[in-house]
Protein backbone atom coordinates (compact mmCIF):
# COMPACT_ATOMS: atom_id res chain seq x y z
CA UNK A 1 0.00 0.00 0.00
CA UNK A 2 1.49 3.32 -1.05
CA UNK A 3 1.89 5.98 1.62
CA UNK A 4 0.02 9.20 1.12
CA UNK A 5 2.47 12.03 0.31
CA UNK A 6 2.81 14.57 3.11
CA UNK A 7 1.33 17.98 2.54
CA UNK A 8 3.57 21.06 2.82
CA UNK A 9 2.25 22.00 6.28
CA UNK A 10 2.93 18.44 7.41
CA UNK A 11 6.48 18.65 6.07
CA UNK A 12 7.10 21.91 7.93
CA UNK A 13 5.60 20.42 11.05
CA UNK A 14 7.86 17.40 10.70
CA UNK A 15 10.95 19.61 10.37
CA UNK A 16 9.93 21.52 13.47
CA UNK A 17 9.66 18.28 15.43
CA UNK A 18 13.33 17.42 14.90
CA UNK A 19 14.72 16.50 18.29
CA UNK A 20 17.16 18.79 20.01
CA UNK A 21 19.82 16.07 19.91
CA UNK A 22 19.57 15.81 16.11
CA UNK A 23 19.73 19.59 15.77
CA UNK A 24 22.80 19.65 18.00
CA UNK A 25 24.49 16.89 15.95
CA UNK A 26 23.69 18.70 12.70
CA UNK A 27 25.29 21.96 13.89
CA UNK A 28 28.33 20.17 15.30
CA UNK A 29 28.73 18.07 12.15
CA UNK A 30 28.55 21.22 10.01
CA UNK A 31 31.36 22.91 11.94
CA UNK A 32 33.55 19.79 11.91
CA UNK A 33 33.01 19.12 8.18
CA UNK A 34 33.82 22.75 7.30
CA UNK A 35 36.97 22.62 9.42
CA UNK A 36 38.05 19.28 7.92
CA UNK A 37 37.72 20.80 4.44
CA UNK A 38 39.49 24.08 5.15
CA UNK A 39 41.62 23.26 8.25
CA UNK A 40 41.65 27.01 8.67
CA UNK A 41 40.94 27.30 12.39
CA UNK A 42 43.08 24.44 13.70
CA UNK A 43 46.02 25.45 11.48
CA UNK A 44 45.89 29.09 12.55
CA UNK A 45 45.45 28.18 16.23
CA UNK A 46 48.30 25.66 16.11
CA UNK A 47 50.69 28.08 14.41
CA UNK A 48 49.75 30.85 16.81
CA UNK A 49 50.39 28.59 19.82
CA UNK A 50 53.74 27.58 18.34
CA UNK A 51 54.73 31.23 17.93
CA UNK A 52 53.80 31.90 21.57
CA UNK A 53 56.07 29.02 22.66
CA UNK A 54 58.90 30.49 20.58
CA UNK A 55 58.43 33.85 22.33
CA UNK A 56 58.51 32.06 25.70
CA UNK A 57 61.75 30.34 24.71
CA UNK A 58 63.35 33.64 23.70
CA UNK A 59 62.21 35.32 26.92
CA UNK A 60 63.55 32.49 29.14
CA UNK A 61 66.72 31.75 27.19
CA UNK A 62 68.83 33.98 29.44
CA UNK A 63 67.07 33.25 32.72
CA UNK A 64 70.00 31.16 34.00
CA UNK A 65 70.21 27.64 35.39
CA UNK A 66 69.02 28.70 38.86
CA UNK A 67 65.64 29.83 37.51
CA UNK A 68 62.98 27.17 38.15
CA UNK A 69 60.81 27.25 35.04
CA UNK A 70 58.38 24.75 36.55
CA UNK A 71 57.28 27.43 39.05
CA UNK A 72 55.63 29.40 36.25
CA UNK A 73 55.05 26.55 33.78
CA UNK A 74 51.31 26.25 34.43
CA UNK A 75 50.79 29.98 33.96
CA UNK A 76 52.78 30.00 30.72
CA UNK A 77 50.86 27.01 29.37
CA UNK A 78 47.44 28.49 30.11
CA UNK A 79 48.53 31.87 28.78
CA UNK A 80 49.32 30.22 25.44
CA UNK A 81 45.94 28.45 25.54
CA UNK A 82 44.06 31.68 26.30
CA UNK A 83 45.69 33.54 23.41
CA UNK A 84 45.07 30.61 21.06
CA UNK A 85 41.46 30.16 22.15
CA UNK A 86 40.62 33.84 21.58
CA UNK A 87 41.91 33.54 18.04
CA UNK A 88 39.83 30.41 17.43
CA UNK A 89 36.67 31.76 19.06
CA UNK A 90 36.78 34.93 17.02
CA UNK A 91 37.40 33.11 13.75
CA UNK A 92 34.60 30.61 14.36
CA UNK A 93 31.96 33.35 14.59
CA UNK A 94 33.48 35.65 11.94
CA UNK A 95 33.41 32.74 9.53
CA UNK A 96 29.72 32.12 10.30
CA UNK A 97 28.85 35.78 9.68
CA UNK A 98 30.95 36.12 6.50
CA UNK A 99 29.47 32.97 4.94
CA UNK A 100 25.91 33.83 5.99
CA UNK A 101 25.69 30.65 8.05
CA UNK A 102 24.65 32.47 11.23
CA UNK A 103 21.76 34.17 9.46
CA UNK A 104 20.67 30.83 7.99
CA UNK A 105 20.77 29.26 11.45
CA UNK A 106 18.60 32.05 12.84
CA UNK A 107 16.06 31.53 10.04
CA UNK A 108 15.94 27.79 10.64
CA UNK A 109 13.60 26.23 13.24
CA UNK A 110 16.45 25.46 15.62
CA UNK A 111 16.33 26.36 19.27
CA UNK A 112 18.83 29.13 20.03
CA UNK A 113 20.34 27.37 23.09
CA UNK A 114 21.05 24.34 20.88
CA UNK A 115 23.00 26.61 18.52
CA UNK A 116 25.02 27.68 21.58
CA UNK A 117 25.82 24.11 22.61
CA UNK A 118 26.68 23.12 19.03
CA UNK A 119 29.08 26.02 18.61
CA UNK A 120 30.56 25.64 22.11
CA UNK A 121 31.24 21.90 21.74
CA UNK A 122 32.78 22.51 18.30
CA UNK A 123 35.08 25.17 19.75
CA UNK A 124 35.95 22.84 22.64
CA UNK A 125 36.91 20.02 20.26
CA UNK A 126 39.15 22.28 18.17
CA UNK A 127 40.79 23.71 21.29
CA UNK A 128 41.46 20.24 22.75
CA UNK A 129 42.99 19.09 19.46
CA UNK A 130 45.43 22.02 19.55
CA UNK A 131 46.23 21.29 23.22
CA UNK A 132 47.05 17.65 22.39
CA UNK A 133 49.87 18.88 20.16
CA UNK A 134 50.95 21.97 22.11
CA UNK A 135 51.14 20.51 25.64
CA UNK A 136 53.73 17.76 24.90
CA UNK A 137 55.74 20.30 22.91
CA UNK A 138 55.61 22.72 25.85
CA UNK A 139 56.82 19.96 28.20
CA UNK A 140 59.66 19.00 25.85
CA UNK A 141 60.90 22.60 25.48
CA UNK A 142 60.52 23.91 29.03
CA UNK A 143 60.18 21.01 31.49
CA UNK A 144 62.13 18.07 30.09
CA UNK A 145 65.35 19.18 31.83
CA UNK A 146 63.69 20.43 35.03
CA UNK A 147 63.92 18.58 38.34
CA UNK A 148 60.40 17.31 38.94
CA UNK A 149 60.85 14.28 41.21
CA UNK A 150 57.84 15.19 43.38
CA UNK A 151 55.45 16.24 40.63
CA UNK A 152 51.98 14.67 40.46
CA UNK A 153 50.68 12.32 37.78
CA UNK A 154 50.19 13.64 34.25
CA UNK A 155 46.42 13.12 34.37
CA UNK A 156 46.15 15.90 36.96
CA UNK A 157 47.53 18.45 34.50
CA UNK A 158 45.31 16.97 31.77
CA UNK A 159 42.23 17.30 34.01
CA UNK A 160 43.04 20.95 34.74
CA UNK A 161 43.40 21.58 31.00
CA UNK A 162 40.07 19.91 30.19
CA UNK A 163 38.15 21.75 32.95
CA UNK A 164 39.70 25.04 31.88
CA UNK A 165 38.99 24.38 28.21
CA UNK A 166 35.32 23.62 28.90
CA UNK A 167 34.86 27.02 30.54
CA UNK A 168 36.89 28.82 27.89
CA UNK A 169 34.88 27.27 25.04
CA UNK A 170 31.49 27.66 26.73
CA UNK A 171 31.72 31.23 27.98
CA UNK A 172 33.99 32.23 25.09
CA UNK A 173 31.33 31.22 22.56
CA UNK A 174 28.86 33.61 24.20
CA UNK A 175 31.42 36.44 24.32
CA UNK A 176 32.48 35.86 20.69
CA UNK A 177 28.82 36.03 19.63
CA UNK A 178 28.41 39.31 21.51
CA UNK A 179 31.50 40.86 19.93
CA UNK A 180 31.26 39.56 16.36
CA UNK A 181 28.99 42.36 15.12
CA UNK A 182 30.81 45.17 16.93
CA UNK A 183 33.52 47.47 15.62
CA UNK A 184 36.95 46.22 16.67
CA UNK A 185 35.57 42.77 17.46
CA UNK A 186 39.05 41.35 18.23
CA UNK A 187 39.63 44.06 20.83
CA UNK A 188 36.14 43.74 22.28
CA UNK A 189 36.49 39.97 22.74
CA UNK A 190 39.79 40.43 24.59
CA UNK A 191 38.37 43.18 26.80
CA UNK A 192 35.43 41.00 27.86
CA UNK A 193 37.24 37.66 27.85
CA UNK A 194 40.08 38.22 30.34
CA UNK A 195 38.11 39.82 33.24
CA UNK A 196 35.25 37.30 33.00
CA UNK A 197 37.63 34.34 32.74
CA UNK A 198 39.85 35.55 35.58
CA UNK A 199 38.37 33.31 38.34
CA UNK A 200 38.52 30.21 36.11
CA UNK A 201 42.09 30.88 34.97
CA UNK A 202 43.20 31.51 38.55
CA UNK A 203 41.75 28.15 39.67
CA UNK A 204 43.02 25.96 36.81
CA UNK A 205 46.50 27.54 36.80
CA UNK A 206 46.75 26.91 40.56
CA UNK A 207 45.57 23.31 40.10
CA UNK A 208 48.01 22.60 37.26
CA UNK A 209 50.84 24.31 39.13
CA UNK A 210 50.23 22.15 42.20
CA UNK A 211 50.36 19.03 40.04
CA UNK A 212 53.58 20.12 38.34
CA UNK A 213 55.37 21.22 41.52
CA UNK A 214 54.15 18.45 43.80
CA UNK A 215 54.60 20.49 46.97
CA UNK A 216 53.48 18.93 50.30
CA UNK A 217 49.67 18.72 50.42
CA UNK A 218 49.36 19.39 46.71
CA UNK A 219 46.60 16.81 46.20
CA UNK A 220 44.21 18.60 48.58
CA UNK A 221 44.87 22.02 47.03
CA UNK A 222 44.56 20.53 43.54
CA UNK A 223 41.07 19.17 44.18
CA UNK A 224 39.97 22.39 45.88
CA UNK A 225 41.00 24.36 42.80
CA UNK A 226 39.40 21.85 40.41
CA UNK A 227 36.14 22.01 42.42
CA UNK A 228 36.20 25.82 42.16
CA UNK A 229 36.83 25.61 38.40
CA UNK A 230 33.99 23.10 37.89
CA UNK A 231 31.63 25.33 39.89
CA UNK A 232 32.62 28.28 37.68
CA UNK A 233 32.03 26.21 34.53
CA UNK A 234 28.59 25.05 35.69
CA UNK A 235 27.47 28.54 36.76
CA UNK A 236 28.80 30.49 33.77
CA UNK A 237 27.87 27.96 31.08
CA UNK A 238 24.36 27.77 32.56
CA UNK A 239 24.13 31.56 32.40
CA UNK A 240 25.48 31.55 28.82
CA UNK A 241 22.89 28.93 27.88
CA UNK A 242 20.09 31.07 29.30
CA UNK A 243 21.34 34.33 27.73
CA UNK A 244 22.35 33.06 24.28
CA UNK A 245 18.89 33.48 22.72
CA UNK A 246 18.74 37.13 23.83
CA UNK A 247 22.28 37.78 22.54
CA UNK A 248 21.45 36.31 19.13
CA UNK A 249 18.22 38.25 18.81
CA UNK A 250 19.83 41.54 19.89
> What does the average pLDDT come to?
86
Broad structural category: mainly alpha
The helix/strand series, from N terminus to C terminus, equals HHHHHHHHH
Percent in strands: under 5%
Span between termini: 50 Å
Helical fraction equals over 70%
Query: What are the low-pLDDT stretches, counting only 5+ consecutive residues below 50?
Result: 8-15
Dominant shape: globular
Radius of gyration: 21 Å
Largest sheet: none
Number of helices, counting only DSSP H or I runs of 4 residues or more = 9
What is the strand tally?
0
Notes on the protein architecture:
This protein has nine helices and no strands. The protein is globular. Helices cover 82% and strands 0% of the residues. It has 250 residues and is mainly α.
Element layout with pairings:
Layout: H1 8-16, H2 20-38, H3 40-60, H4 70-98, H5 101-107, H6 112-143, H7 154-179, H8 185-213, H9 218-249
Helix pairs in contact: 2-6, 3-4, 3-6, 4-6, 4-7, 4-8, 6-7, 6-9, 7-8, 7-9, 8-9
Amino acid sequence: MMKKPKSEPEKRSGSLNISGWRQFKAILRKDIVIELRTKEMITSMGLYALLVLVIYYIALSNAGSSFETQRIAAGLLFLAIVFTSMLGLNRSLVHEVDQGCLEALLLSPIDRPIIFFGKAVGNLIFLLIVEVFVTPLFYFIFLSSAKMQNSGPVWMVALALVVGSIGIAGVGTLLATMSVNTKGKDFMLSVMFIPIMFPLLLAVVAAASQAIMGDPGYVKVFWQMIAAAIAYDALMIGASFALYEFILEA
